[in-house]
Amino acid sequence: MHRPIIDYVLCNNCTTCTELCLYKAIYIDSIDGYVKIDYAKCKNCGICIRICPYGAIRYSHNKNQWVPTTSSIIRAD
Ligand code: SF4
Ligand code: SF4
Q1: Which end of the chain is more exposed for a tag (fewer CB within 10 A), N or C?
Q2: pLDDT higher than 80, residue 75
Q3: pLDDT > 60? residue 77
Q4: Which atom of ligand 1 is nearest to the CA of 51?
Q5: Residue 26 Cα: closest atom of ligand 1
């Protein structure tokens, strides 16, 4: 199943998606500061994909494609 994923190279942490997700599924990780999607809450509505001003969210079959760490961003696919 495809899920929305965040491309951390394009994301600038504007937090628009955290405010507009109707299901409160996008949050700021208090440990590393990156915006992340809680897939247990996400309903796959696609709104975040349409509203991200930087085109940083898209559908993927691999929800672990981008893995941010505190020091770098690793592309895991
Ligand atoms: S709206 Fe886009 S650029 Fe802004 S925090 Fe969300 S994913 Fe990042
Ligand atoms: S697809 Fe919908 S429910 Fe899932 S994170 Fe994006 S806006 Fe929220």
Answers
A1: N
A2: no
A3: no
A4: 1
A5: 6
Q: Give the C-alpha separation, 63 to 1, whole Å.
A: 10
Question: Which residues have any ligand 2 atom within 6 Å of their CB?
Answer: 4, 21, 23, 25-26, 37, 42-48
Q: What six digits make up the tokens of 69?
A: 């760490």
**Under a CB-based contact definition with an 8 Å cutoff, are residues 16 and 76 in contact?**
no
Q: Which domains does the chain have, with CATH numbers?
A: 3-75 (3.30.70.20)
pTM of the model: 0.86
Segment 6-29, tens digit of pLDDT:
998 899 999 999 999 999 999 999
Q: In this structure, what is the dihedral angle of CA atoms 47, 50, 53, 56, given to the nearest 10 degrees? A: 90
Measured in Å, residue 71 CA sits from the centre of ligand 2 at 27
Q: Look at the block and give the residue holding tokens 């600038």.
A: 12
Cα 63 to middle of ligand 2, angstroms: 13
